[in-house]
């Protein structure tokens, strides 16, 4: 049985819930093979790139990003509409790249949202989404509240966003394994499989389009080679943009997310597309010397950028920029500290008109 874990940082903790999940699944299924493509400190839109690039097959995809998306969008205007877009993009990617797989969403909550009386619009909307789609899901927020009551005991969280590696991880592993067994025993959701487009605004249905760095280099006729990068979580190729370089190419749609292999030398990226000219900070705060991490920046959350949206074919110009006073500094990203040497772009996700 081939399982893909697509989650946030709780899904990549050493000795986290994955250990107990694996043990439980091996009690009920033969030949369990788990591929963990999770990425912490980012949103669920990151998984579109990972699902598009990893290849292979899957029987089950475990989707754990409720905690992350709550932290990034619950406080923004119209969080339910934003969560709807993120969910549509994820399920579109699942049905496009892994059409035979079942999907099990897992709802974890950070410590500030543990108590069910705390208003969580993302949580409310995604439960409604899954029920309407006929998708089985694991509501760990409700389950842990049923066990421990309104106040989280000390044994649950190691910090505001992460669960302890002992009893808490064992509980979560058991909950998710039970949900996985139920999901594998029931038919796939036909309604979820029918997500072909994404609705950005009323009566506007658009198609997601993803271009990897390899595709951008090839289709754009760029006179460079992609850079191969690997760590214990991911193996990727990237287009490296240095201070003395400018890359111009065409993209079939409007970019809504940029994917990076961020490191301590990442700087500010300037992207010109259509009438928009946006400066984006690409150095993730969790980067450490000598290593990179896979991450993404959801441009669709930048309203001043999205007001220029034009889903026809666009010319894109990318270059490294000096820090601007008007940069888009998304959550978990920071300004470079004067040591910026380049930007490693893994891919671009965009939206195009339906043909």
Characteristic key phrases:
five-stranded parallel beta sheet; 2 domains; 10 helices; Rossmann fold; Jelly Rolls; globular
Structure description:
The protein is globular and about 55 Å long. The two termini are 37 Å apart. It is 30% helix and 30% strand. It is α/β, with parallel strands linked by helices and 355 residues long. The protein has ten helices and 19 strands. β8 (227-230) and β9 form a beta hairpin. The mean pLDDT is 93.
In short:
The protein has helices at residues 17-28, 46-54, 66-73, 79-97, 121-133, 140-148, 167-185, 190-193, 213-220, 303-306; strands at 2-7, 33-36, 60-64, 102-107, 138-139, 198-201, 204-212, 227-230, 235-242, 246-251, 254-262, 268-273, 276-281, 283-284, 293-298, 314-321, 327-328, 333-334, 342-353. By secondary structure, the protein is an alpha/beta fold.
């Amino acid at each position: 049985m081939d399982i893909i874990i697509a989650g946030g940082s709780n899904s990549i903790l050493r000795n986290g819930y994955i250990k107990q999940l694996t043990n439980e699944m091996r009690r009920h299924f033969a030949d369990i093979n788990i591929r963990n493509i999770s990425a912490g400190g980012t949103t669920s839109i990151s998984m579109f790139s990972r699902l598009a690039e990893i290849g292979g097959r899957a029987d089950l995809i475990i989707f754990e990003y409720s905690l992350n998306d709550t932290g990034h969008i619950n406080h923004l205007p119209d969080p339910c509409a934003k969560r709807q877009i993120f969910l549509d993009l994820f399920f579109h990617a699942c049905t496009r790249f892994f059409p035979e797989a079942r999907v099990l969403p897992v709802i974890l909550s950070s410590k500030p949202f543990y108590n069910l009386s705390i208003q969580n619009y993302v949580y409310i909307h995604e439960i409604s989404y899954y029920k309407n789609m006929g998708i089985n899901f694991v509501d760990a927020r409700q389950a842990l509240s049923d066990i421990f009551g309104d106040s989280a005991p000390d044994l649950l969280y190691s910090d505001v966003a992460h669960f302890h590696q002992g009893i808490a991880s064992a509980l979560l592993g058991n909950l998710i394994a039970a949900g996985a067994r139920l999901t594998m025993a029931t038919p796939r959701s036909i309604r979820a499989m029918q997500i072909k487009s994404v609705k950005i605004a009323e009566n506007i249905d658009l198609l997601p389009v993803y271009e990897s760095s390899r595709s951008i280099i090839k289709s754009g006729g760029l006179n460079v080679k992609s850079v191969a990068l690997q760590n214990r979580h991911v193996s990727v190729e990237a287009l490296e943009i240095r201070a003395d370089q400018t890359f111009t190419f065409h993209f079939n749609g409007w970019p809504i997310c940029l994917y990076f292999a961020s490191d301590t030398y990442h700087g500010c990226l300037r992207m010109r597309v259509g009438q928009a000219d946006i400066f984006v900070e690409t150095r993730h705060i969790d980067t450490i010397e000598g290593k990179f991490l896979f991450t993404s920046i959801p441009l669709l959350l930048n309203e001043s950028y999205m007001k220029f949206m034009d889903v026809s074919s666009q010319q894109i110009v990318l270059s490294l920029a000096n820090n601007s006073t008007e940069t888009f500094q998304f959550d978990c990203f920071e300004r470079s500290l004067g040591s910026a040497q380049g930007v490693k772009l893994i891919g671009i996700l965009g939206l195009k008109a339906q043909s």
